[in-house]
Amino acid sequence: MQGYLPSVVLTGAAALLEVLGVCPESVASEAELPELALRSADVPIRGAQVLRFLSLAADVTRCRNFGLRLAEYQGLAVLGPILVMMQGTPTIGEAMETLAEFYVLHTSMSCVRAVRDEQGMVLTYDLENAAGPGEIQAVELGLANGMQYLRSICGTAWHPAVVQFRHAAPADCTLHRRMFGRSLNFDQDRNAIVLDRDTVMRPVTQHRRNAHRVLEAHLRRERAQVEALWVVRTQTIIRALLPFTDTSLNAIAHALATSPRSLQRRLFEAGTTFDELREQVRGDLAVKYVQQSNKRLAEISAMLGYSQQSAFSRAFKRLRGVTPRQLRAMRHETGPGRSAKSR
Q: Is the pLDDT of residue 209 over 60?
């Protein structure tokens, strides 16, 4: 979240605000966002500004589903050359793997991971080191954009096997079920779209192998230049595995197809350590679960690998200045229109 990202991520926001009867420039100003960012796709902006803008937009329009509605205004073009790369792959599964590999070039604010299993594929989506107002809108926008791509291939009647959100359910899930289908679950361990095997193997109809090869070479050169890429990849793997399995140095190095020593060296060159990254991710997930879900604190503590709930509370207070119980109480005091209140 420390770097910049292109304002293409807010494509359609001005038009949606105008439809909802709100002046886009006033929301941008309050979010400390350059007004030009709402009219141009290449203005550099910070992730924190994006989250603040989405939170304010949802509040002033009294639209809990602002992120979902924004996806309908964005379209697939926001992915730029990555979309052309995806269209050049033979199957949906390979398209999703291409999206996951190169998504960091679209935005450093969030990460995508595509993992195959016996049933098909799990496509997870997370914001990096971000929690609080605006994140729920951003997560729902990200998964909704994923659904738009999948339906462009599979047809509008297609539904995924399951869609999961880490945050609590809104009071009205009508639009969510229209967007994601009936197999929709909240208060989960991840933000994910689960694809069955038939969907993963379905051909991509707009297959363009030549365009794929040209763009792949170009994007690989760009990807090699992304600062601290090993940091991003390591955080992504830890974030995906932490609630479910071993996240030791050896396990993460194995998942990244490298040795523990090589991973430590690359992280050192990027100015950090494995232990620091793991604690950052664990602290970030702790805030997300406490703020956004209805899971019991004891359950969150166990999921994040703490031996006792008291150890979890102490670590949380050391990092955040308040206990998990205090932060959850603050969530319930959030004003009207906030996503934490809309449960």
A: no
